[in-house]
Amino acid sequence: MKNQSVHEAVKERILVLDGAMGTSIQRYGLSEEDYRGSMFSAHSLPQKGNNDLLSITRPDVIREIHLRHLQAGADILSTNTFNANAVSMADYGMEEHVYEINRAAATLAKEAVNEYNNRQAPMGQNIRQAPMGQNIRQAANG
Fold first, then answer.
1. Once rounded to an integer, what is the mean pLDDT over residues 10-39?
2. Element housing 20 (H / E)
3. Domain residue extents for the chain
4. What architecture does CATH give domain 6-141?
5. How distant, in Å, are the alpha carbons of 25, 47, 101, 141 from that of 135?
6. What's the predicted TM-score (pTM) here?
């Protein structure tokens, strides 16, 4: 999209949204330990299936999924935050980590876009912007 806003780009062509994050995560066959990471190894509730937590405990997996979506032609990335709210995180006893999960997810999406752009664009030209541009930058930086 070459530094083009989403609003400008959608006037010119159909934009492609990334793929299904949950399905992509399932393909990794992650264990309970993967979901917990070292940070939550002693947490009292099971975490397997808490895909949003992987933005903290397995950022490598989430970044790789984002990069695969960009390589496949996605113009817009969704953050890994489908259930990153206090109500949903209560199922895992993770309500107090909602902000941290959302921030990590936004940061990963932004990093993936930057990594993709650095690999693809000659002399640092942006091919794609982070999804919702301003909102991602604000979440990741502030």
1. 95
2. none
3. 6-141
4. Alpha-Beta Barrel (3.20)
5. 24, 28, 16, 10
6. 0.82
